[in-house]
Design brief:
Layout lengths: L12 E6 L2 E7 L5 E3 L14 E3 L6 E3 L8 E8 L4 E8 L7 E6 L4 E3 L10 E6 L2 E7 L2 E4 L2 H4 L7 E3 L6 E3 L8 E8 L4 E11 L2 E11 L4 E3 L10 E6 L1 E7 L5 E3 L14 E3 L6 E3 L8 E8 L5 E11 L7 E9 L4 E3 L10 E6 L2 E7 L5 E3 L14 E3 L6 E3 L8 E7 L6 E9 L3 H6 L23
Parallel strand pairs: 8-16, 17-25, 26-34
Antiparallel strand pairs: 1-2, 1-6, 2-3, 4-5, 6-7, 9-14, 10-11, 10-15, 11-12, 13-14, 15-16, 18-23, 19-20, 19-24, 20-21, 22-23, 24-25, 27-32, 28-29, 28-33, 29-30, 31-32, 33-34
Length: 450
């Protein structure tokens, strides 16, 4: 039904047109009523499908099909004025096309035909004119007419009449209609556009010593986002893009005071700093960033505490190894005497093995975002010793061994990897040996007698 939103008895005449062809008319005193072929000079296009409401003059089209898609014009003549209103009717399930796009992507609505020189192609969004192509000229609605919805994001193709929307947002969801008008016919096509918010997920693991501060970075600018939220089981911090709302800890959730003034939000980036970090602060932190386009960025930070080992309880071992060789870092223990052995490289966990061998991991298995060693690590199931194969200069650094996550035991290996010319490396061999053991250096050839 196409509604007039008036009462018939308050008007002189209500007239309906389909592409400028008279199809229905009613006078305020009901002295004259006609539909379709009953009207003067009208064609028999609708064949008893039209019905006029005598109270309002509203028009109902029954048993509609694609033949009746197009522009209907309502003309109301009262004692004081003449008003007109256009209705663009699209028949869904016949001409309508359903299109799905992710936010931030570009979308092209293609009519699927070549524009003729004299065609006028008009694009509507939810019945609002947004673009028009006449001959070789085109015009796109201004921000005033579009309520700043598209903001220079519309492009038209003069050859095909297609419409491209760049950097789509959730607000671009709706019905787009293309009206193509030539000298002989008008064709209406509709496109049902659904914009789905994009969800981007990433992960990171951060190691920090108890009592230190840790900074969890968003890698964005606050003023380019709608909302930034931080969660640690519950919401612990939030900041809006316009800075109209900012909260941390107990300000976000009454009754929650885990951090007690130890949280700080960066107003420029929304990054979160946790000061004087404690053991109970370790765990999974969730960052959720909502952009104006509808894209949601999600990042998981796993914060793990490195337990500082007390001075006299730590063994420090310096190891020098040639590039491309293998090196084994020995634990000097038996696995069945330990609950867990954990290896760290420059503060990043790279290997774990439990005493009952129920859990073992190396490199990327321990940290999803870390793949430095790429299958070059090997754990000894009997001792938990770590072997690094095909070692590289970038593998130089501190390898920290911890037993059972306790404070009173540990071992630090300072590994220095030195490079050598290819010819020299081919002639050199390296052996790893524990202090107090015997080592045999074999030249690999038979000594000749004089």
């Amino acid at each position: 039904m196409l509604h007039t939103s008036v009462n018939t008895d308050q008007q002189d005449r209500i007239t309906w047109y389909f592409y400028d062809n008279l199809i229905a008319e009613i006078t305020g005193d009901f002295g004259y009523i006609c539909t379709d072929v009953q009207c003067e000079d009208a064609e028999e296009k609708f064949r008893n499908r039209l019905k006029l409401d005598n109270q309002t003059g509203s028009l109902t089209i029954m048993n509609i099909n694609k033949t009746y898609a197009g522009v209907y014009k309502l003309q109301i003549i009262s004692r004081t004025e003449l008003s007109e209103k256009n209705f663009i009717v699209a028949v869904y399930g016949v001409e309508g096309r359903y299109i799905k796009v992710l936010s931030d992507e570009s979308l092209t609505l293609d009519p699927g035909e070549v524009k003729k020189p004299n065609d006028v192609m008009t694009w509507y969004f939810n019945d609002t004119l947004i673009a028009e192509i006449t001959g070789d000229q085109s015009k796109i609605c201004t921000d005033d007419h579009c309520d700043e919805r598209f903001r220079d994001r519309l492009e038209v193709n003069h050859g095909t009449g297609s419409l491209t929307i760049t950097n789509t947002t959730l607000k671009d969801f709706g019905v787009y209609k293309l009206l193509t008008t030539s000298s002989s016919i008008s064709i209406l096509k509709s496109f049902n556009v659904y914009v789905q918010g994009r969800r981007i997920v990433s992960r990171a693991t951060i190691y920090v010593a108890e009592g230190d501060s840790v900074n969890l970075q968003t890698d964005v600018e606050t003023n380019q986002q709608e909302n930034i939220r931080w969660y640690f089981n519950t919401r612990i911090a939030e900041i809006t893009g316009d800075l109209s709302y900012i909260c941390t800890d107990v300000q976000c959730n009454n009754g929650t005071e885990r951090f007690r003034d130890r949280l700080k939000l960066d107003h420029q980036t929304g990054s979160l700093t946790i000061t004087n970090i404690r053991t109970r602060d370790s765990g999974l932190y969730l960052l959720q960033i909502s952009s104006s386009s509808g894209t949601i960025f999600v990042k998981y930070f796993y914060v793990d505490l490195i337990h500082a080992v007390l001075g006299g309880a730590t063994d420090e071992v310096s190891v020098s190894v040639m590039e491309k060789d293998s090196v084994t870092l020995h634990t000097d223990v038996k696995m069945n005497q330990q609950e867990k052995i954990v290896w760290y490289f420059n503060g990043i966990r790279i290997a774990v093995i439990t005493g009952d061998l129920s859990y073992t991991c190396t490199d990327v298995q321990c940290n999803e975002a870390t793949e430095r060693f790429r299958d070059r690590l090997k754990l000894d199931n009997q001792t938990g010793s770590l072997t690094i194969r095909d070692i590289r200069t970038t593998d130089s650094g501190h390898y920290d061994l911890q037993f059972n996550h306790t404070y009173l035991s540990g071992k630090l290996f300072i590994v220095a990897v030195t490079g050598a010319p290819a010819a020299q490396r081919a002639e050199m061999k390296t052996k790893s040996v524990k202090e107090g053991e015997s080592v045999t250096l074999d030249p690999g050839e038979i000594k000749k007698t004089k």
